[in-house]
């Protein structure tokens, strides 16, 4: 069984799918779990990778076993230019297989290729967060935001999270947030009060980006890696130069496989030794892949959405 994209903008079709024999540089993997990310929904809609072949199986990150040995699957065209891994079994390039360190829950490993790497690189490479930082995480209850909260906390930073869901407050505090605010863009400054972050992480866009910029301390850094609330926003340019702020964008799609693979290996080691956590908010069977998209669009899930591929 596989989740097939037959036509952009239409629900995925979960159906039987014949597998070709693996080539010399390929492997057949029994898939166990697949991460569901906003970019997967964009691919289904045709706003990302619109020129890729149809029909094809979606799913760009996951975890499974080859000969009983656990691997993360990520990159090398999986789910983009070739069939992905939202399937009970898949043929993937051997280069896309990365060993899973001992002791890691494979559900958590399954989401490290995109969400885990994004959190790891934005925190450690772009923002270079240290114990001296005051960190604001917008959309903190989301799949990437919740990982950032845990990682920044364990680096010793003071961490404030933002979520539109009051029910996420205690959950985020348990993950390492020192305080959680529930305001939207218009009320963010008021709820932050005297808290002036040195770093803000923004996966939301829209009015949140301008509000985050206004909140930053002098020489602060804004890391933007998504626009789930809206792709356009207004920023006050005088604030940028008068406060000597830096805006750092992260996309990941333009980086080489070597760079992304190395980051994934680092992130998996951090997960194994407890430097970051992954929160699995909902696990759904493969047959409910379209419902998984609906949950992402509504932004109602705390943590990651994962597909169980053998259910």
Structure explained in plain terms:
- By secondary structure, the protein is an alpha/beta fold.
- It folds into two domains: 2-111 and 280-308, Medium-chain alcohol dehydrogenases, catalytic domain (Quinone Oxidoreductase, Chain A, domain 1), CATH 3.90.180.10; 114-249, Rossmann fold (3-Layer(aba) Sandwich), CATH 3.40.50.
- 30% of the residues lie in helices and 24% in strands.
- The chain is built from ten helices and 16 strands.
- Strands 3, 5, 6, 7, 8, 15 and 16 form a seven-stranded mixed sheet that branches.
- α10 links the parallel β15 and β16 (304-308).
- α3 packs across α4 and α3 crosses α9.
- The longest helix is centred in the C-terminal third of the chain and has 16 residues, at 257-272.
- It is globular.
- The mean pLDDT is 94.
Order of helices and strands: EEEHEEEEEHHEHEHEHEHEHEHEHE
CATH architecture title of the largest domain:
Alpha-Beta Complex
- Overall geometric form: globular
Total beta strand runs: 16
User: How far is the first residue's CA from the last residue's CA?
Assistant: 11 Å
Give the % helix: 25-40%
What fold name goes in the CATH topology slot of the largest domain? Answer: Quinone Oxidoreductase, Chain A, domain 1
Radius of gyration based on Cα positions: 19 Å
Percentage beta strand: 15-25%
Report the top-level CATH class of the largest domain. Alpha Beta
Look at the helices and sheets and give the structural class: alpha/beta
* Tally of separate domains: 2
CATH superfamily of the largest domain: Medium-chain alcohol dehydrogenases, catalytic domain
Low-confidence segments: none
Overall mean pLDDT stands at 94
Largest sheet: 7 strands, mixed
How many H/I helical runs?
A: 10
């Amino acid at each position: 069984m596989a989740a097939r994209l037959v036509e952009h903008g239409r629900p995925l079709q979960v159906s039987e799918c014949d597998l070709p024999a693996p080539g010399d540089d390929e492997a057949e993997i029994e898939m166990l779990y697949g991460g569901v990310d906003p970019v997967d929904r964009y691919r289904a809609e045709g706003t990302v990778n619109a020129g890729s072949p149809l029909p094809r199986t979606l799913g760009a990150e996951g975890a499974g076993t080859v000969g009983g040995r656990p691997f993360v699957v990520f990159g090398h065209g999986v789910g983009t230019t070739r069939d992905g891994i939202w399937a009970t079994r898949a043929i993937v390039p051997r280069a896309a297989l990365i060993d899973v360190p001992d002791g890691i829950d494979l559900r958590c490993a399954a989401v490290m290729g995109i969400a885990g790497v994004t959190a790891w690189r934005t925190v450690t490479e772009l923002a270079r967060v240290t114990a001296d930082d005051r960190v604001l995480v917008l959309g903190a209850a989301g799949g990437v935001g919740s990982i950032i909260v845990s990682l920044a906390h364990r680096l010793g930073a003071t961490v404030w999270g933002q979520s539109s869901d009051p029910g996420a407050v205690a959950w985020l505090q348990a993950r390492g947030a020192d305080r959680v605010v529930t305001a939207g863009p218009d009320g963010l400054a008021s709820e932050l009060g005297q808290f002036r972050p040195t770093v803000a992480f923004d996966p939301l866009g829209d009015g949140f980006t301008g509000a985050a910029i206004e909140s930053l301390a002098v020489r602060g850094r804004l890391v933007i890696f998504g626009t789930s609330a809206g792709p356009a926003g207004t920023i006050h340019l005088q604030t940028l130069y008068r406060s000597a702020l830096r805006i750092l964008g992260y996309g990941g799609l333009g980086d080489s496989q070597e760079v992304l693979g190395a980051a994934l290996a680092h992130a998996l080691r951090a997960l194994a030794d407890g430097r970051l956590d992954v929160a699995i908010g909902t696990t759904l069977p493969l047959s409910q892949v379209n419902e998984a998209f609906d949950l992402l669009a509504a932004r109602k899930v705390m943590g990651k959405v994962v597909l169980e591929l053998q259910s």
